[in-house]
Design a protein that fits this description.
By secondary structure, the chain is an alpha/beta fold. Helix content is 36%, strand content 31%. About 22% of the residues have low confidence.
Protein backbone atom coordinates (compact mmCIF):
# COMPACT_ATOMS: atom_id res chain seq x y z
CA UNK A 1 0.00 0.00 0.00
CA UNK A 2 2.89 2.35 0.80
CA UNK A 3 4.31 1.80 -2.67
CA UNK A 4 0.96 2.60 -4.26
CA UNK A 5 0.47 5.76 -2.21
CA UNK A 6 4.05 6.83 -2.95
CA UNK A 7 3.48 6.33 -6.68
CA UNK A 8 0.22 8.26 -6.70
CA UNK A 9 1.71 11.15 -4.70
CA UNK A 10 4.75 11.31 -6.97
CA UNK A 11 2.60 11.26 -10.07
CA UNK A 12 0.22 13.90 -8.71
CA UNK A 13 3.10 16.24 -7.91
CA UNK A 14 4.74 15.72 -11.27
CA UNK A 15 1.53 16.15 -13.25
CA UNK A 16 0.54 19.21 -11.27
CA UNK A 17 3.87 20.81 -12.07
CA UNK A 18 3.56 19.87 -15.73
CA UNK A 19 -0.03 21.11 -15.97
CA UNK A 20 0.88 24.43 -14.39
CA UNK A 21 3.78 25.19 -16.70
CA UNK A 22 1.39 26.38 -19.43
CA UNK A 23 4.14 27.58 -21.78
CA UNK A 24 3.99 25.33 -24.80
CA UNK A 25 6.76 27.22 -26.55
CA UNK A 26 9.37 25.78 -24.19
CA UNK A 27 10.56 22.34 -25.22
CA UNK A 28 8.11 19.87 -26.67
CA UNK A 29 8.75 20.95 -30.27
CA UNK A 30 9.67 18.26 -32.70
CA UNK A 31 12.49 18.39 -35.19
CA UNK A 32 9.83 18.81 -37.87
CA UNK A 33 8.37 21.87 -36.15
CA UNK A 34 11.82 23.39 -35.66
CA UNK A 35 12.76 22.75 -39.27
CA UNK A 36 9.46 24.10 -40.56
CA UNK A 37 9.82 27.30 -38.57
CA UNK A 38 13.31 27.68 -40.01
CA UNK A 39 11.94 27.22 -43.55
CA UNK A 40 13.74 23.93 -44.23
CA UNK A 41 10.98 21.85 -45.86
CA UNK A 42 13.31 18.96 -46.81
CA UNK A 43 14.39 18.41 -43.21
CA UNK A 44 10.80 18.92 -42.10
CA UNK A 45 9.54 16.23 -44.47
CA UNK A 46 12.24 13.77 -43.35
CA UNK A 47 11.50 14.40 -39.67
CA UNK A 48 7.75 13.97 -40.17
CA UNK A 49 8.34 10.76 -42.14
CA UNK A 50 10.53 9.42 -39.30
CA UNK A 51 7.89 10.38 -36.70
CA UNK A 52 5.16 8.66 -38.73
CA UNK A 53 7.30 5.53 -39.25
CA UNK A 54 8.02 5.28 -35.52
CA UNK A 55 4.33 5.77 -34.68
CA UNK A 56 3.30 3.11 -37.22
CA UNK A 57 5.84 0.65 -35.79
CA UNK A 58 4.56 1.27 -32.26
CA UNK A 59 0.97 0.93 -33.44
CA UNK A 60 1.79 -2.37 -35.15
CA UNK A 61 3.38 -3.74 -31.96
CA UNK A 62 0.37 -2.66 -29.91
CA UNK A 63 -2.04 -4.19 -32.46
CA UNK A 64 -0.08 -7.45 -32.32
CA UNK A 65 -1.35 -7.88 -28.77
CA UNK A 66 -4.97 -7.90 -30.01
CA UNK A 67 -4.58 -11.46 -31.28
CA UNK A 68 -4.41 -12.92 -27.77
CA UNK A 69 -7.55 -14.09 -25.99
CA UNK A 70 -8.17 -12.24 -22.74
CA UNK A 71 -10.75 -12.25 -19.96
CA UNK A 72 -10.55 -8.49 -19.41
CA UNK A 73 -9.92 -6.17 -22.36
CA UNK A 74 -9.41 -2.61 -21.16
CA UNK A 75 -8.44 -1.27 -24.58
CA UNK A 76 -11.28 0.77 -26.00
CA UNK A 77 -12.65 1.74 -22.58
CA UNK A 78 -12.99 5.46 -21.91
CA UNK A 79 -10.92 6.84 -19.03
CA UNK A 80 -13.78 6.67 -16.55
CA UNK A 81 -14.57 3.03 -17.33
CA UNK A 82 -10.89 2.09 -17.32
CA UNK A 83 -10.44 3.76 -13.93
CA UNK A 84 -13.48 1.91 -12.59
CA UNK A 85 -12.15 -1.43 -13.89
CA UNK A 86 -8.67 -0.91 -12.44
CA UNK A 87 -10.06 0.24 -9.08
CA UNK A 88 -12.29 -2.86 -8.98
CA UNK A 89 -9.20 -5.03 -9.53
CA UNK A 90 -7.26 -3.26 -6.77
CA UNK A 91 -10.17 -3.31 -4.29
CA UNK A 92 -11.17 -6.95 -4.82
CA UNK A 93 -8.14 -8.69 -6.36
CA UNK A 94 -9.22 -12.21 -5.36
CA UNK A 95 -12.13 -11.92 -7.80
CA UNK A 96 -9.67 -11.31 -10.68
CA UNK A 97 -6.74 -13.60 -9.79
CA UNK A 98 -5.69 -15.78 -12.73
CA UNK A 99 -7.68 -13.76 -15.27
CA UNK A 100 -5.87 -12.53 -18.36
CA UNK A 101 -5.95 -8.78 -18.97
CA UNK A 102 -5.03 -6.61 -21.96
CA UNK A 103 -3.93 -3.15 -20.84
CA UNK A 104 -2.46 -0.06 -22.47
CA UNK A 105 -1.07 2.48 -20.03
CA UNK A 106 1.85 4.71 -19.11
CA UNK A 107 5.01 3.33 -17.52
CA UNK A 108 6.83 4.47 -14.41
CA UNK A 109 9.54 2.80 -12.33
CA UNK A 110 9.46 3.42 -8.58
CA UNK A 111 12.31 2.63 -6.18
CA UNK A 112 11.64 1.29 -2.70
CA UNK A 113 12.25 3.53 0.30
CA UNK A 114 15.58 1.78 0.87
CA UNK A 115 16.46 1.93 -2.83
CA UNK A 116 17.28 -1.77 -3.04
CA UNK A 117 14.20 -2.72 -5.10
CA UNK A 118 12.52 -1.28 -8.17
CA UNK A 119 8.85 -1.65 -9.00
CA UNK A 120 7.31 -1.39 -12.49
CA UNK A 121 3.98 0.41 -12.62
CA UNK A 122 1.40 0.87 -15.34
CA UNK A 123 -0.81 3.85 -14.62
CA UNK A 124 -3.58 5.82 -16.23
CA UNK A 125 -4.71 9.41 -16.05
CA UNK A 126 -8.03 10.78 -14.92
CA UNK A 127 -10.44 12.37 -17.39
CA UNK A 128 -8.70 15.75 -17.20
CA UNK A 129 -5.38 14.17 -18.16
CA UNK A 130 -3.54 15.87 -15.33
CA UNK A 131 -3.52 13.29 -12.54
CA UNK A 132 -2.88 9.60 -12.13
CA UNK A 133 -6.19 7.87 -11.39
CA UNK A 134 -4.95 4.28 -10.99
CA UNK A 135 -1.77 2.20 -11.01
CA UNK A 136 -0.85 -1.48 -11.00
CA UNK A 137 2.49 -3.24 -10.77
CA UNK A 138 3.67 -5.52 -13.55
CA UNK A 139 6.61 -7.87 -14.12
CA UNK A 140 7.69 -10.45 -16.64
CA UNK A 141 10.50 -11.76 -18.83
CA UNK A 142 9.13 -9.85 -21.83
CA UNK A 143 9.43 -6.46 -20.07
CA UNK A 144 12.52 -4.46 -21.14
CA UNK A 145 14.83 -3.28 -18.35
CA UNK A 146 15.67 0.10 -19.83
CA UNK A 147 12.33 1.86 -20.39
CA UNK A 148 12.03 5.55 -19.68
CA UNK A 149 9.34 6.81 -17.32
CA UNK A 150 6.12 7.99 -18.99
CA UNK A 151 6.55 5.65 -21.96
CA UNK A 152 3.35 4.33 -23.52
CA UNK A 153 3.15 0.57 -22.98
CA UNK A 154 0.75 -2.25 -23.74
CA UNK A 155 0.64 -5.74 -22.27
CA UNK A 156 -1.24 -8.98 -21.94
CA UNK A 157 -0.81 -10.92 -18.72
CA UNK A 158 -2.40 -12.69 -15.79
CA UNK A 159 -3.51 -10.88 -12.67
CA UNK A 160 -1.50 -12.30 -9.78
CA UNK A 161 -0.39 -11.50 -6.24
CA UNK A 162 2.79 -11.69 -4.20
CA UNK A 163 3.57 -11.33 -0.52
CA UNK A 164 6.14 -8.80 0.61
CA UNK A 165 6.75 -8.38 4.33
CA UNK A 166 3.33 -9.82 5.16
CA UNK A 167 1.39 -7.62 2.74
CA UNK A 168 -0.23 -8.95 -0.44
CA UNK A 169 0.32 -6.91 -3.61
CA UNK A 170 -1.57 -7.34 -6.88
CA UNK A 171 0.37 -7.25 -10.16
CA UNK A 172 0.18 -8.30 -13.78
CA UNK A 173 2.39 -11.26 -14.69
CA UNK A 174 3.20 -10.15 -18.24
CA UNK A 175 3.07 -12.74 -21.03
CA UNK A 176 3.22 -10.35 -24.03
CA UNK A 177 4.51 -6.78 -24.03
CA UNK A 178 4.88 -3.84 -26.43
CA UNK A 179 6.55 -0.45 -26.11
Amino acid sequence: MKKFISLILSALLLFTLCACSGNSSQGGTSAAQNAASAGDTTLSTVAVTEDVSAAEAKSAKFKELEKYDVDIDTNGLNKNMLTAQMQAISQDPEKYLGKTIRLTATYQKQKSNTGDKAYNYAFGYDDTGCCAAWAIEFYGDKVPDNMEDFTSISMVGKISQYDEDGTMYTFIDVEHFAV
